[in-house]
Amino acid sequence: MQQKPTLVNVIGWMTLASGIVNLIWGFVASATALITIIGIFCIPITILPTILGVFEIIYAAKLLGNPPQTVKPSTSIAILEIACVLTGNAFAMVVGILSLVFYNDLTVRDYFARLRGAAPVAPAQPVPPALPTPPSPPAPIVEPEPAPVTEEEAAPAEEPTVPEPEAPETPEKPKRSRKVAGK
């Protein structure tokens, strides 16, 4: 029998605790929403942590069971735990972030690969750096030659005639000034 890595046990216990907190959080939020008329329409949102809590408890039971059951790392549960911050549950968000970090640990990935019967994940072999190639000399800069001037281009252009501006019309009646009330 293979020994579970410590991080797998930590993921299991954190997921179990988050499942219990989400169950309580969902029941309290749903009961609070039932008190108000507007809250009745919010019940579908407040019940989501309860449903997630049930899934977390089931997954944690599979992780912590002896003998271990064949399971994969549940990144979807971890992402939904992070999304629980929208319902005000910061504890589930922290558990989700830590679970995603722990799932990427090499020992945890190897453990889940052995459970599924797959080959353990081998670390990637470092690629030796390529030898630097000597820089090539810069290409010579070619100056463009100016185009020859022809007689048509040399002739002065005629200036367009500008019409004289018209005198502004004066109004027939002078404008009256407005009287301010109270003066």
Tell me about this structure:
- The chain has 183 residues and is mainly alpha-helical.
- Helix content is 51%, strand content 0%.
- The chain is built from eight helices and no strands.
- α5 runs antiparallel to α6.
- The protein is flat.
- The N and C termini lie far apart (102 Å).
Number of helices: 8
Secondary-structure class = mainly alpha
Number of strands: 0
What portion of the residues fall into strands of 2 or more residues?
A: under 5%
Q: What's the overall average pLDDT, rounded?
A: 81
Biggest β-sheet description: none
Order of helices and strands: HHHHHHHH
Note the gap between the termini.
102 Å
In short:
By secondary structure, the protein is an all-alpha fold. It is built from 8 helices and no strands. The chain has helices spanning 6-35, 37-41, 43-46, 48-64, 75-83, 90-103, 106-115, 151-154.
SSE arrangement:
Blueprint: H1 6-35, H2 37-41, H3 43-46, H4 48-64, H5 75-83, H6 90-103, H7 106-115, H8 151-154
Q: Which tags fit this structure?
A:
183 residues, mainly alpha, 8 helices
